[in-house]
Every structure is written in structure tokens, then in C-alpha cells.
């Protein structure tokens, strides 16, 4: 067995250089709520439509603005329906910390996203690498944690391929058990067995209130979830980015076209106020007199 497999039978991928294209940055680019954004956009369309008629900004500028608004509205819809729910609720750690959740909540979120995210099971090795999970394959010594009970409840099993540093792929059969409440704490048991040695390894991920590093572990677990969620639904994410950028370009182009149109083409002669007053006071003649 290669030396990198001893004691750590997997390899953790680093952060992508294209991280600024991930979901959390896209969500930040459309920070307004969906209802407010759409209502504002279509109200502006109505205002600009009337405004272009009054000041002669030109139809091309109006059309560019309308298409920019539609592109932005579509981007918001893609984000709302395709971005992971975890990211929409917690785009950064501050938004999570401000909720003042129990220390158990982050582990429930971790378990939920293991199942919900496409590559969710690949997060398990990261918890071992970062010493959040403890290997209990060999029964530990004296401990308060109900280690045996952690592997008894309902579970989900999935075969998960992981790439090695040498380019080869190892498939792990991973089984995750539902988290178990213990006192005021929460523990989650899971197992991993590779197709190389067929040895089942048992791990326990525990979030304990009396742990001196409880806050740091909760924070680390949060970032593991967020990093994985940020890369979900790649095609939808790139499509939403394209719509947002198209909206910005069309808006800039609309302003340029409107300015050029106003400078180069003369505005139509506006009717005098006297004409409006005269039309209101003096009724129109209907047909010739007999």
C-alpha cells in the first residue's frame, strides 16, 4: 500500500482557483429579495417607458433596458430554484452565527446536506482529515459517548469514488447513520470501506457542548458544507452568472444609447401649456353647423 494511504486512505482536493464564480458570490450579486427585485424591475420598466416618450431617449435604449430587466429577473429565478438552500439561508458564516443556533444545529445541517448535495458523501473524509471525526474501528477506552448506539439507527449507503494524488480512483462504500442526541450533544456515526483492502473503518463525528474547541469545530463544519454547496449545479450557476453579466452590459449599453440619442437627435417640439388649457376649456366642435 502506498505511504499516503497509511492511516489516511483518501486525499482531499484543494480550493478551486475559480472560487469567485461559486454560488455565494452570485447570491451576493443579487442580494435583494425576489419579490422586491421583480417588483422594482417591472415598475422601472413602466417608468422608463413613459420617460423615453417625454424626453426622447429613443426606443433602442428602452428595449435594452427591458431586456436587461428580464435577464436579471431570470437570473434571480435561477438562483432561487437552483442554488442550494443552505447557501441561500447562510451565504457566509456571519449570517449563520447571527442566528445563534444550538451547537447541534450545524451537525444536523451537515447530515442534511450530505444527502441533498450531489457530492455530499465526499465531505466525510474531510471531517476525518480535519480531526472532526474520530476513528472508532477499534473500540476506544473509557468514553461517555454511546459509540455502539451511533451505528444502530437508520442509515443511507452510497458508493463514492475519490481521486488519489497519483490520478487513480478508489471507490469507497460509505454508510451514514442518522445523528443521535446524547444529553445536550449530537453525534453521528459513519463507516467507510475502500475497494482496495475491503476493511470497514468506523468513525464518529461528535459536537459536544463541553468541548473546549466546540465553536471552532462548528465553524469548520460550516465551511465544509458551504464549500461543497457553492459548487453544486454547475451549469445552472454559470447560466445565472451569464444572465447577471448580460443584464449589466445591456444596462450600460442602454445608458450609452440614450445619451447618444439625446445629444444627436433633436427632441420633438413639446406642446405648449396653453394648448392643454385651451383643449380642456373649449369643447371640440362636432360636425358642421346646419
Automatic annotation (TrEMBL):
Alphabetical keyword list: Membrane, Transmembrane, Transmembrane helix
Transmembrane intervals: 25-48, 60-79, 238-264
Record-given protein name: Uncharacterized protein
Organism whose genome encodes this protein: Mesorhizobium humile
